Amino acid sequence: PSGRRGAPPEHPRARRMRPPNTVRTAQRLASVLLLSVCVAFTPHQPAASRSIGSSRNLHSHKCARATRHQCAQYIRMVASEKVESSPAAADVDTKSMGEAYLELKYTELASIKPSSSWALAWANFKRQLQSGLEQAAEKVGIQKNDELKPPYCLGLVLSNEAVSEAERKREEAGGRIDAHPVSRTLYDIGCLFLDNLFEGRPIQRFWFLETVARIPYFSYTTMLHLYESFGWWRAPELRKVHNAEEWNELHHLLILEALGGNLAWSDRFLAYHAAIVYYWFLLAVYLCSPRIAYQFMELLESHAVDTYGTFVQMNRARLKALPPPTIAVNYYTSSDLYLFDDFQMRTPGTRRPPCDSLLDVFQNICEDEGEHVKTMRACQEYAVQGTPVVSPHKEQATEPTPMTASEKRKLWQSWAAAVNEANCVLEDGDDL
């Protein structure tokens, strides 16, 4: 600038010779793109050479350390059903292998501080751009796919025909949902989309399903806030139940992210945009008919029960040999399970599922989805018959027994004596 000491004065035409803001912005964007391409095409350190930190054994106070390569070898041996015959399996403490799932840097979004929408959007754009370029490089063979990462090394399978058969049996047994024709049509289209897009990729399918499945609870809560803000209707207990349901679905999502369900940029792109469309769609449906909005969610949750149940049956032995992710252990065995009890249609504290293997994790998720189905049915009855949906904790709460007049008198006397003793000041010569 011309105001600095010793700097020559700026020529009047120099400012007009500078490129406009749009050109400078384009130049910066091109620099970012070039840098992202360089980063994407740079060979990454193989996962086998990275090690994981020690984690506390679930049944003792000893810490066991295992490299990610050992964990990946163990998982691949499980996939090939050679665990019993391989001596390498003896070197891996399966209780410490939960950390082997947690290598996904993309899930570490909680470390980002709250900021403006454009700052967060720009940071997300850069992350997604790099991930998209990496996926494109893997597709054309420029960059090799890391086969030691979950879910590639898990070897888990799911049959679309088996899921359809499970759904057919449920409906023949009396579990068919008498849904609105539009809801049924949209549901059938969604199932067809899932079957074709995620053929042979069950973990990615589950992650997509959980990303979309938690959106209705956001929509329901938004509408309840709207009704309450206008003074039309107030249902704090219903909002509380929906918050607990969303909290449960969130942990399903985190578990599947730990298993690598959101590795592909294309899966994330489709899931996030489908979730946004689904959110606004349910807002419009709830505005016209809360019953149909809850009914559509019952369809989705029932499909989740069929899908998870079929998945467990097809992979039982393999899942039983694999350890649970740390996030699953923290959620299902936590000392604070208030929200876990809050969305279920049963007495609080009566359901404490185990979490000793990946089989337990998926069985727990399947049972959770079954509880969501029951809650959605109760919400539909609320909309039709007016039977309130309240927290199970409130249903089990007992009112205190009314005090008699003599008990109140004794309580007042003890309180008065305590006050007099606290305010009593003895003078010289006084005796108690």
UniProtKB/TrEMBL annotation:
Keywords: Electron transport, Iron, Membrane, Metal-binding, Oxidoreductase, Respiratory chain, Transmembrane, Transmembrane helix, Transport. InterPro entries: AOX, AOX_sf. The keyword Oxidoreductase applies. It holds the Pfam family AOX. One of its GO terms (molecular function) is alternative oxidase activity. It comes from the Eukaryota. Residues 1-22 are annotated as: Disordered. GO terms for biological process: alternative respiration. The keyword Transmembrane applies. The chain crosses the membrane at residues 269-288. It is found in: Membrane. Its cofactor is Fe cation. One of its GO terms (cellular component) is membrane. PANTHER family: ALTERNATIVE OXIDASE (PTHR31803), UBIQUINOL OXIDASE (PTHR31803:SF19). Belongs to the alternative oxidase family. This is Ubiquinol oxidase. The lineage of its organism: Eukaryota, Haptista, Haptophyta, Prymnesiophyceae, Isochrysidales.
